[in-house]
Amino acid sequence: MASYRRIDDGLDLRLIKDSKLEIIEQNKERLTARWNVWDGALNSIGTCQGMIHFGMADVIAAIVCDREGIVVTKDASCFYHKPLYEGDVEVEAFIGKNGKTNITVEVLFYQKGALCFQSIFTMHATRKTYNE
């Protein structure tokens, strides 16, 4: 499993814990993962609340960057193709452009083989560490 840093009591940790995020495979350019839409992530009509999609994709985009220091979201575009329901979500994430300080990342969520959510992030490598 990949190692990555996170703020111990922040939203990132709660999303990872509640969703049971599991990194299956990771290299310098891409990763595959699995997470689970849990009961508490469902809205009143039984589908995953949209900001959960965004939050999970944002965390995954930061993980795939795997740079020294803190990486933060600069901008994002999200496309909701189909609803996510309670259960497993398969993830593909990959770096499109790896610049000096900005990194473009695409994150795709699939459920039962269907593309449900797509996001494109520009991540900024701050070159600062947690100790600074």
UniProtKB/TrEMBL annotation:
Record-linked CDD domains: PaaI_thioesterase (cd03443)
UniProt-listed InterPro entries: HotDog_dom_sf, Thioestr_dom
Entries under SUPFAM superfamilies matching the protein: Thioesterase/thiol ester dehydrase-isomerase (SSF54637)
Domain of life: Bacteria
Segments forming a coiled coil: none
Domain Thioesterase: 56-113
Pfam family, one: 4HBT
Full protein name: Thioesterase family protein
